[in-house]
Automatic annotation (TrEMBL):
Domain called HTH iclR-type: residue spans: 13-74
DNA-binding found in the keyword field: yes
Assigned keywords, A-Z: DNA-binding, Transcription, Transcription regulation
Residues covered by the IclR-ED domain: 68-231
Superkingdom of origin: Bacteria
Organism, scientific name: Amycolatopsis samaneae
Short name of one Pfam family: IclR_C
Listed SMART domains: HTH_ICLR (SM00346)
Transcription in keyword set: yes
Name recorded for this polypeptide: IclR family transcriptional regulator
Length: 231
């Protein structure tokens, strides 16, 4: 549940309150929950939970996978668009400074769902002889590429996680080689004080990385500064 649960009072809608509780609950469980688990967590009968989930499904705010586990739905993306616009506005000057400092392509990536991340913004260097180019909106697997690996590293360790995720958790930033595009190196760090289930990362894409630590510290600093603006 939310770290600061809302106390229901007589002027509030209990049904809407319970529906929002389900969404907040699913944010903290990106792998999904069963209907029974949801009912137990929010303290309602399974039949009530079923009606709430069906309503959220109709609005594409949650969905069920083939194992009948319930997770957040793509309809939240449309609702989040105004927030993402604010995120892009705050992030742009930070990305511009990062790309000028490193002469590499800087990117802002958000978690799309439990399996994918989405490229929200790209800033390319103006003076570099050559640089990596991506298109905004590109969707990639969360377990491939530095942005997704950084987000997974921000969550508690999983028994079957890749060694690169474990290493990223220790270093504070993730590095990947040729996982999104051949010959492209990625270096990314998550924006602090954001829930891993709805993660945001700042990173670099480049062809050579002779000093991973220097680049890693640069993206960590950029992510920290964006996190301060988002508080």
């Amino acid at each position: 549940m939310s770290e600061n649960p809302v106390q229901l009072d007589s002027g509030m809608s209990k049904t809407l309150h319970n529906g929002l509780e389900i969404l907040e609950l699913l944010v903290t469980h990106p792998r999904g929950l069963t209907l029974t688990e949801i009912a137990e967590e929010i303290g309602v009968h399974r039949t009530v939970a079923h009606r709430l989930v069906r309503t959220l499904e109709a609005h594409r705010l949650c969905r069920r996978d083939r194992f009948k586990r319930i997770s957040l739905g793509n309809g939240l993306v449309r609702l989040a668009e105004p927030v993402e616009q604010d995120l892009r506005t705050l992030a742009r000057p930070i990305l511009e400074e990062l790309t000028e400092l490193t002469q590499a392509t800087a990117h802002l990536v958000v978690r799309e769902n439990e399996r994918q991340v989405r490229m929200l913004m790209i800033v390319e260097p103006r003076q570099a002889r050559m640089h990596v180019s991506f298109r905004p909106g590109q969707v990639d697997p969360i377990d491939r590429g530095s942005a997704g690996l950084a987000m997974l590293a921000a969550a508690p360790a999983a028994p079957d996680e890749r060694a690169e995720i474990t290493r990223a958790r220790g270093r504070g930033f993730a590095v990947s080689y040729g996982e999104i595009a051949p010959s492209v190196i990625g270096v990314s760090a998550t924006v602090p004080d954001r829930d891993p289930a709805g993660g945001v990362s700042i990173g670099l894409s480049l062809f050579e990385a002779p000093d991973e630590d220097r680049l890693g510290h640069a993206v960590v600093d950029a992510a920290r500064r964006l996190g301060q603006l988002l508080r």
